[in-house]
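Form 12-C: Joint structure prediction
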Amino acid sequence: MASEPVETTNMATGSDAMSSSNTRQSRVRKREGAIISAGRSVFTTYGYAKATMAMIAREAGVADGTLYTYFDNKDALARGVVADYYARLTGTAKEGVDTRRTTRTRLDFLARHHITSIMEERGIVEMLPLLSSNLSDYSKDELYGLNKTYVAVFDGLIREGRASGDIPGDADVAVLRDIFFGALDYGARSSLLRSSRQGARNADITRLVDRLVSMIVGTNTSTGSLADRLEAVVNRVETALKEVGN
Amino acid sequence: MASEPVETTNMATGSDAMSSSNTRQSRVRKREGAIISAGRSVFTTYGYAKATMAMIAREAGVADGTLYTYFDNKDALARGVVADYYARLTGTAKEGVDTRRTTRTRLDFLARHHITSIMEERGIVEMLPLLSSNLSDYSKDELYGLNKTYVAVFDGLIREGRASGDIPGDADVAVLRDIFFGALDYGARSSLLRSSRQGARNADITRLVDRLVSMIVGTNTSTGSLADRLEAVVNRVETALKEVGN
DNA sequence: AATCAAATTGAATAGGCTTCAACTGTTACG
DNA sequence: CGTAACAGTTGAAGCCTATTCAATTTGATT
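Section 2 - Result
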């Protein structure tokens, strides 16, 4: 029994595993959540450069130094915020896709979901290029994995669509992915810069998404089945409602 | 003669306007060029965050304080570097387009030119999101105008292509623009992250550009005219050569 | 040559990230 | 209960870098 790690609190006492979440670990986890949440808020409001660690600490209700027991530095904290964002984004994307039926409506949903999300949390998305500074070992990065998981939702749709004959052609999935997410990211930025009113932005989104999805699926909206068109309308209504704050 | 502005050096002596470029103004302009050049070099090497004003001053051969007589702050200096980049990019884009003949080969050139340029000077392009911090008055920004001038090259191609019947459909030019530049920017990033070898990157570029141009022009490469296909090959050879440093 | 504005300098200032020695509250154990 | 051990917390101090500015140099003008 030499050199056995101490492992004090890990092997829980066994019983009441859910109610008494007031253990050390759980408090630590809760605090980590508070810090990430504070980070999201401050980074979103001020942007990476103008956000200060002091602000984040204040918002999270901890001392400056405490931040550094959870994250190595400001960069790592920002990464944590982005990672959290990616996780949520992937979750809601999967959920939404699962409640749609056809390839077209699924793609349509995914596109709308993506572009509205990044428009809302634009401040966070914009930090990304700053953070992946060292391209060399990017594949070791946590964000790399999270991004991969996220885009896998799209990749899956394309493969299924091909198998079912909904998507013609055999272009590399990576190419379609570049076009899909690239257009949405760029479109989000343009629309935010160009259109100041929410209504105009919604129109921008619909124009772009319709065209993009048609390019991939092949048929355009007006020639789709009635069921397809219905589901597409539902997608639009739902995202519109979400924006109103519902 | 009360309160008349002094205007010392502006109203030149009239004669020899070109040879004696050793005047105060010209030296100032030369120094501004040196600073932008130094900024490009340092920002490209270290990225915006790790680049220091001291490094740039040293590289430009001036004192730290001198930088501030040319640019208000680090941000403005970075903007200057990006502005310079845009100007060059637009120039070479126009040149290249003018030496191509058909809509397809012009688009093909523009796409390759864009993606190879941003892959080469990726460090500079990545600073952009950082700099356009205040979206509200972006239209007053110098970069806004430069970007507009640049994408106008694409817009012109689309309009001409429509007029000549080369490009079908009547989708909003803004939508096509989002798809075109969005896909290229995103594709550049993916390729740099994914493919380490130059050959693999060239393959990535060709796959993406071919697909993208086909999506816009409508016909795909193998059904284009012989002349079109020839010009496309020339484009590929030329960009390949440029990469080798020729 | 004298004068004046423009341009340059670099040391001083200010502000923010990060470190770390001291402190606090919790857990384990007799 | 008392107490040892320790994870977690604190905030003041150190360091680094953007930015300022009073003093100086440079170059044009008369």
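Section 3 - Comments
Residues 6, 8-9, 24, 27-28, 31, 62-66, 69 of chain B lie near DNA strand C (CB under 10 Å from a C1'). Residues 1-20 of chain B have pLDDT under 50 and may be disordered.
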